[in-house]
Design goal:
Helices cover 10% and strands 43% of the residues. The protein is mainly beta and 183 residues long.
Amino acid sequence: MRTRTGVMTVAAAVAAMTLGCTPQQPGPPMVIEEKVYTVTPDAVKVKAGIMTGEVTEMRVIEQVDKDTGKVVSQAKLTGTLRLTNSSADQAVRLVAGRFLFIDAEGQPIRVEEKRIAATVKSSTYGAAERLDPGQEATESVDVDFPTEALKAKKLKEIRLELVYLPSPYRQEAANFAVSIGGQ
């Protein structure tokens, strides 16, 4: 009887392992579609103090499941930000930048919770690097866009706020007398 119970236990264990632990077959793959919203105009000139430039190729992209229409990846504003130091006598170091989305009443439209504020992350500027007079820097824009701003006639304007450190720019020369080989 013991042998019979042992065999039944082993058989039950084998049956449970083969039937209960089989991986479930995945459903059909999710087809993701990019939903592109045009921004009009798609290029604008910007000026903030001694910083001038333009934002070009602006568009808003959202990824949705083609079958269900469910949002897979929240909306993002993309484009290119080109900034120029227009000062004649000051170097600049960009500290921070951010995009604000303004509604028809002049109030900022907030980005949803658990999403990142629309800040410009500079790969050009480092702790010791600077933008001298007349120099230009180009950055890719890829920032979270508030879902509320996608509604018709909700978004009135986009504001770019820049924080930068200007410092006096001077170019000096020094001459000194030399001789070669005892001449």
